[in-house]
Amino acid sequence: MSHTELTARPSVLDRIGAALSGIRDWLDERGKAAWIAVMILGFIAVWPLGLAILAYMIWSKRMFSSCRHRHHHRGNGRSFSAPTGNIAFDAYREETLKRLEDEHNEFVDFLQKLREAKDKAEFDQFMQGRKEPRDVTPQN
Q1: Which residue intervals of 1-140 are DSSP H helices?
Q2: Which keywords label this protein (predicted)?
């Protein structure tokens, strides 16, 4: 083989590195929960693999900070992909995301009111129990 053929063909280590980079990018897109799930599965399958993933997460600071997302960020902290260039689709996407965010906020408010109502009912039941006269008869 000539020298140009050797340099044109990636080595096994290059291919492994490229595969690991692809896996890393895929996990980064899914967030910290995906990294933790893979680490736990690594511990279950082969404990040194889980330990290696944990060490990599700590070394690369993925354990203590948000993963490096490849999305554009908005001022309110949400991340979305870049505009597609299709004005109609981008408008539809923005409208749909706004509607979903509004529905999410309404649902969170509903859950908060539900929790408050449950807490009030439990408190009212507790107070009612305190108001009822207790049967204080000596036990012999």
Answers
A1: 3-8, 12-30, 32-45, 47-59, 87-131
A2: Membrane, Transmembrane, Transmembrane helix
Give exposure, 14-36, as e/b (b: 16+ Cβ within 10 Å).
eeeeeeeeeebeebbeeebeebb
Please write the tens of the pLDDT for every residue from 101-139. 999 999 999 999 999 999 999 999 999 888 877 666 666
pTM: 0.36
Instruction: Please report whether residue 138 resides in a domain.
Output: no
Residue 87: CA atoms inside 13 Å, Cβ hemisphere, count? 0
* Same domain flag for 66 and 80: no
Domain end call among 70, 103, 125: 70
Total Cβ atoms within 10 A of residue 51: 13
Same domain? For 76 and 128 the reply is yes
